[in-house]
């Protein structure tokens, strides 16, 4: 196994970052752009895209789209994530980390933090998504809506890790969850990447 990577049972590519890179979050694309001048047009496109990311990726696939679950379970969010969600420090939450793959290639890494208080009633189903994309659940529901998108600049260890990310809170009444989406170089390098 190459250092810093884990093997993937499902992917033939063997280029899958095991851990998400540390990321600095900015309240807008404009704020992030002040730090990293000249964010390229393809990154800007994905960072600002409205609606379901799953759906947008599915539209770019020739052979198919699938979700690979890297880990799912009750874990402790970071302090910063707990603050962003307004949950007590140290309280465990349901954490889901996945790879969104187009044509068998990982295109996006996603990390979702779901507080325990969100896992009630019908939303208990959020623990049982498995390979069903979270976007299919959130965007088919009338109850859930998305807050503003933050832009993340990633501090990567190597060129195979995602350079940029975006993050937003989803709300349903008092319930919240936090979705982070990290764009991998294979997606950003596609010639049709920012064509709708
Ligand atoms: C929020 C969405 O759901 C996507 C699917 C995810 C999952 O299955 O865990 C995670 C993040 C998203 O990119 C979306 O499609 O926009």
TrEMBL record:
<protein>
    <recommendedName>
        <fullName>Probable chorismate pyruvate-lyase</fullName>
        <ecNumber>4.1.3.40</ecNumber>
    </recommendedName>
</protein>
<keyword id="KW-0456">Lyase</keyword>
<comment type="similarity">
    <text>Belongs to the UbiC family.</text>
</comment>
<keyword id="KW-0670">Pyruvate</keyword>
<dbReference type="GO" id="GO:0008813">
    <property type="term" value="F:chorismate lyase activity"/>
</dbReference>
<feature type="binding site">
    <location>
        <position position="134"/>
    </location>
    <ligand>
        <name>substrate</name>
    </ligand>
</feature>
<feature type="binding site">
    <location>
        <position position="96"/>
    </location>
    <ligand>
        <name>substrate</name>
    </ligand>
</feature>
<comment type="pathway">
    <text>Cofactor biosynthesis; ubiquinone biosynthesis.</text>
</comment>
<dbReference type="GO" id="GO:0005829">
    <property type="term" value="C:cytosol"/>
</dbReference>
<comment type="function">
    <text>Removes the pyruvyl group from chorismate, with concomitant aromatization of the ring, to provide 4-hydroxybenzoate (4HB) for the ubiquinone pathway.</text>
</comment>
<dbReference type="InterPro" id="IPR007440">
    <property type="entry name" value="Chorismate--pyruvate_lyase"/>
</dbReference>
<dbReference type="Pfam" id="PF04345">
    <property type="entry name" value="Chor_lyase"/>
</dbReference>
<keyword id="KW-0831">Ubiquinone biosynthesis</keyword>
<feature type="binding site">
    <location>
        <position position="181"/>
    </location>
    <ligand>
        <name>substrate</name>
    </ligand>
</feature>
<dbReference type="GO" id="GO:0042866">
    <property type="term" value="P:pyruvate biosynthetic process"/>
</dbReference>
<keyword id="KW-0963">Cytoplasm</keyword>
<dbReference type="GO" id="GO:0006744">
    <property type="term" value="P:ubiquinone biosynthetic process"/>
</dbReference>
<dbReference type="InterPro" id="IPR028978">
    <property type="entry name" value="Chorismate_lyase_/UTRA_dom_sf"/>
</dbReference>
């Amino acid at each position: 196994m190459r250092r810093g990577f884990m093997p993937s049972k499902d992917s033939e590519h063997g280029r899958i970052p095991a851990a998400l890179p540390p990321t600095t979050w900015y309240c807008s694309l404009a704020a992030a752009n002040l730090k990293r001048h000249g964010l390229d047009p393809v990154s800007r496109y994905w960072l600002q895209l409205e609606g379901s990311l799953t759906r947008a990726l599915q539209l770019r696939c020739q052979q198919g789209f699938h979700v690979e679950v890297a880990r799912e379970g009750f874990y402790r969010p970071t302090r910063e994530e707990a603050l962003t969600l307004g949950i007590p420090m140290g309280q465990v939450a349901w954490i889901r980390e996945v790879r969104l793959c187009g044509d068998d290639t990982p295109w996006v890494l996603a990390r979702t933090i779901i507080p325990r208080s969100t896992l009630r009633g019908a939303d208990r189903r959020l623990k049982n998504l498995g390979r069903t994309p979270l976007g299919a659940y959130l965007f088919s529901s009338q109850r859930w809506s998305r807050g503003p998108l933050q832009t993340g600049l990633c501090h990567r260890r190597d060129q195979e890790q995602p350079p940029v990310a975006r993050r937003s809170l989803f709300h349903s009444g008092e319930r919240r969850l936090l979705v982070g989406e990290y764009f991998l170089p294979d997606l950003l390098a596609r010639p049709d990447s920012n064509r709708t």
